[in-house]
Amino acid sequence: MHHHGYLWTGPKDRFDQEALRRPPHPEPPPPGSRPELVQRYREVASAFPASELPPLETAYWLLKPPALVRGTWGEAEDAAAWLGERLAEFAPRFAAGGGREGGYLARHVGSAVARLRAGGDVSLGFYLERPSYLSLALVTCSPNRERPELPCPQRSRGKPLSDSAS
Question: For 124-164, how does the pLDDT look when each residue is reduced to its tens digit (9 = 90+)?
């Protein structure tokens, strides 16, 4: 078991485009479906995997391009440390002042360690100044508890796993 880190920041209105954050249905529309339904399915099927937007369900990060992986760690503590570093980096930009406090951020890191050790995923989101949004995720892989059928983004591309926090 290992953990992949993901980070997205961008305009809040882009984050709110939920249709782009949902994977396509596993089966295409049946033959004879309305042309607009078929066209919409094709759009979602091609746009979702290539989009850098955070998926609505954390495990679906594993379907995104491997280049979006910000780091891979074998230990929950190392993955949570990366999360803590990102929180500290962005905290000065948090729209809510209470989210900048060290104790608040430390609780997120501690909770992440416990969740990752149990095989779960971690997903955090924060409003930033200028209506922007920060999404941070740590996804447990090989296999993912919620979606064991999803491939590892690094192994699926033939890359070896690394312990770097790139």
Answer: 999 998 889 999 999 999 899 999 999 998 764 433 344 44
- 76 - beta bridge partners? none
Cα 96 to Cα 146: distance, rounded to the nearest angstrom: 31
Token pair, residue 128, equals: 């930033």
Condensed to tens digits (0 to 9), the pLDDT of residues 2-59 reads: 999 999 999 999 999 888 898 888 889 999 999 999 998 888 888 888 889 999 999 9
What are the two backbone dihedrals, phi and then psi, of residue 128, each rounded to the nearest 5 degrees?
-110, 170
CB-based contact 132:12 (threshold 8 Å): yes
How is residue 94 annotated by DSSP?
A: B
Q: How many CA atoms lie within 13 A of 2 on its CB side?
A: 19
Cβ proximity of 41 and 48 under 8 Å: no
Q: What is the reported pTM?
A: 0.86
**What is residue 84's three-state secondary structure?**
helix
